[in-house]
Design brief:
424 residues, alpha+beta, Endonuclease, Chain A, Helix Hairpins, Heat Shock Protein 90, 3 domains, seven-stranded mixed beta sheet, five-stranded mixed beta sheet, 11 helices, 46% helix
Length: 424
Amino acid sequence: MSSSHIEEIKDEEIHVISQPNRVKQIYLTLVRSATSEILLIFPTINAIRREQNIGIVDELVMTAKRGVIIKILTPEDDFIKSQLEALRSSRIIVRKIEYPAESKFKLLIIDKNISLVVETKDDSKSEFTEAIGLATLSNSAATVQPYVTIFGSFWRETDLYEKAKEAERIKDEFTNIAAHELRNPIMPIITSTSLLREDMDELLKNPSNTIKESINSNLAIIIRNSTRLLQISEDILQVSKIESGTFIINLEPVDLRSIVNFVVGDIKNKYFGAKTKVQYVVELEMISKKTGFTFSCDRSKIMQTLFNIIDNATKFTEGGIIRISSEVKNDEITIKVIDSGPGLDPLIKDKLFEKFASRSEKGIGLGLYIARKIVEAHGGRIWAENNGGKNGCTFSFTLPTDLRHTHDNKIKHLTELTLDQVTH
């Protein structure tokens, strides 16, 4: 078929077409004639089946291969899954309309300057020409542009719907994981407390060394799991502040060496009796010797960032050296934590700083997410990379060296936050 049906509209005109076969031919010709963009709304599930029968799906795939951007809004079900997958695999963007409009009409917009609106007369019919009624073909800007606006509105609604669904999914996932992780340390505390009570009763009757050792063991379990419970609670509270936009940093002049040494001491205390083969080497460029700036940050939050990163390195390092170094360059300090562990898991490497991207059975997957948000709140960057082979990995983050103590000692974290991030 030639494009004579399209060429009939030379100036801005509107044509009403009543012959179904002619509508079908115009429909095919329009899709083939697109040079930049196709916007298309399928009104029903059955409509897609009929489009498949007349070759529209194949035409759309071929048109997409020519580089034309194609956006489709359509209802979905399992019966048309294969047709939609064929479209999506051809880089055609297909979005689901959750509730099809009551007015069953097909809307096709070509290059934002031609529109074809086709009414559905009888959706139960399997043949395209039997199912459709009147069609309106237009190249009038006064007609086409409102349709473009309508399509854009529907498209934005699908965006909002998908974001709402994802937010709900993440909220449920967060609640489930948090509940599970909170339960993990609570059960040993309850059990050890019960055993401790029995030991205390026995100690009154028989003050033996065995009973004392059992008491000390149960106390250690209670302390360890209580500390873990406190950390989980603090992480959840921190994430809640981040997500609600109430995350605040308080700037003050700091000595980097002192806070790194303090954090390393905390890490050693956490793993007391374990990780004895891990050595910590601190190689920090002395910021105090630099001139022209005063290094300021939120002491407690940068300590938390360092703790999360060094703890993460310690967790996966059975023996060897964990090196903490710094470099000042171009009004920016870069702090690195280099370990000699197994390196980053390829499965989560690209999601390290998102929520719940943990490869540890003991981690809720919030530490590195919180670290990223703290660094970003300071105006810095954070990243991680393998050192090559099985030589461990390096976590790095930057902080500006020109941060100053502000008038009210507070800077509000203004970065736009979403629910689709986190890790440990």
